[in-house]
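To: structure desk
From: M.T.
Subject: fold request, one chain
Message: Could you run this one when you get a chance? Sequence is below, nothing fancy, just the single chain.
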Amino acid sequence: MLEPLATAHLPPGVRARHIAHVNGLRMHVLEAGEAGRPLLLLLHGFPELAYSWRNIMLPLAEAGYHVVAPDQRGYGRTEGPVPVYDEDLTPYGPLGYVRDALALVAALGHTEVACVIGHDFGAPVAGNAALARPDVFRAVVMMSAPYGGPRAWPLGEQAVAEGLAGLASPALHAALARLDPPRRHYQWFYSTREADADMHRAPQGLHAFLRAYYHHKSADWAANKPHPLGDFTAEALAVMPTYYIMPAGLGMAATVAAEMPDAAAIAANRWLPEAALAVYAAEYGRTGFQGGLQSYRCTTSGQAAAEMRLFAGRGIEVPACFIAGSSDWGVHQKPGEFERMQGQNSKDAGCRDLRGCHLVPGAGHWVQQEQAEVVAGLVRAFLKGLSPG
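Reply: Done. Structure tokens follow.
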């Protein structure tokens, strides 16, 4: 059995432990604050860990909360079935992660969560939890990935299978391949059998790969200047940086290698110093990336959309907040999703009670790490505005 993450890697006041029998997992969690206080559940993204929340956990605990951040299924020091390419993806589907979250809440001795907070792929997990069980997840903060909500069923007989839309569309994949130069969507690459080895065994080394990847998607990469894209077409998507719309002939390791920061930039990085990056490299060096990649395969196969059709036309009704970096292309990578999330006067809005939408200057995709103090302040202000109890 793995030991919890060493205290030496964590800020004072943040502790690590394992919790057994959490929906079939031995779940590794970081936590701060006293167990008897209202619960905040923090859900990381890809390629991240519970460790990604390290710098905002104590400020949230000091506001009077029990703050818990798990390594999600397939990540870090959470133990369970070893992720392999040829396996049933159901546990990695949208509701699979919600079941994990519910099981963790119960294992912690809580019956409800004051707020579930998610970043990157953790944002839709948080959003789906609030959508599916608003009686448990009483408020939600989503970071970097807007939540447009499950689409309503189209009326009438359809000419094509409704599920083959958006990122699950083979036609979109083919259209990207026809561009000059040919391109492919990163989620389609992440869905391939070779994606795990491409990153895990990156020619430049795993540490260097992660450095380039995190840099490329951050505000430190000056060319990150996101804007709305309009249509969900190959031509519209192709304006995004290569970490989203990749050269067709390259894997992710080679794609981000071209944007590796120099030694001076690395030394100047305060939000992800080398010692912190080494924690990620050690964890992913041990596990590889397949556990995280499974959720992308659920998306590109259409499985995720099909699973969420149970909630077709519904939106999140508990109080919600959205936070992202002003330099984060993730806000616009799914055209129309950011706008749909905010459509409070529309019956099909993703969030029916959106109380804040913040684009943080000086941050790219890793907003809670790049601007930890600002993000902690925004979350605390949102929590303070919620009704007592």
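Reply (cont.): The radius of gyration is 20 Å. Let me know if you need anything else for the meeting.
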